[in-house]
Amino acid sequence: MMRALELKIPPLLLLALFAGAAICVGIWGDDPRFAFPGQLAVAIACGALGTGFMLAGVLAFSRARTSVNPLDPSAASALVTGGVYRLTRNPMYLGMALVLTGLIVALGHAVSFLLVPAFMLWLTRFQIVPEERFLAVRFGPEWQALCARTRRWL
């Protein structure tokens, strides 16, 4: 049953679903709410940093001339290890988590923060782990070396 969910929901759609849930909780949820000086600036910084990570990941894939299709890891023709991939093996997914965090900070609804780890857990279980199984087979020792020096998230 669980494997049936692997590589089925495009990560950007998943981000949209979690963002929609955060907005709903923010609009209709009960307290606790929060506000602090610079809240909007923090929200914008998270969103901008997240967008930067996503764009850097896509650009690195483009330069390597490999597929960015997250639903078909078998289309990967190269293992990208440079640039932003020296910091994280999943900059696009990390970027999405940061964008979601920025939205939640902007909404100022504390309970919505639970959506960030839920989003990351879903991505890890149903997107990243299946991708990594394929990459381990396709790229073998090169993949193992990347895993040894670069964390999955940060």
Task: Describe the model.
By secondary structure, the protein is mainly α. The chain has one domain. Helix content is 62%, strand content 0%. The protein has 4 helices and no strands. Helix 1 runs parallel beside helix 3 (91-107). The protein is globular. The two termini are 30 Å apart.
In short:
With 154 residues, this protein is mainly α. Helix content is 62%, strand content 0%.
Topology:
Blueprint: H1 11-28, H2 39-64, H3 91-107, H4 115-149
Helix pairs in contact: 1-3, 1-4, 2-3, 3-4
Integer-rounded radius of gyration:
17 Å
The amount of helix comes to 55-70%
Shape: globular
Give start-end ranges of low-pLDDT stretches. none
Please state the average pLDDT score: 96
How much of the sequence lies in strands comes to under 5%
Please identify the oligomeric state.
Answer: single chain
Number of domains: 1
Give helix and strand order, one letter per element, not per position: HHHH
Biggest beta-sheet profile: none
Structural class given helices, strands, pairing?
mainly alpha
Number of helices: 4
The number of strands is: 0
Termini separation comes to 30 Å
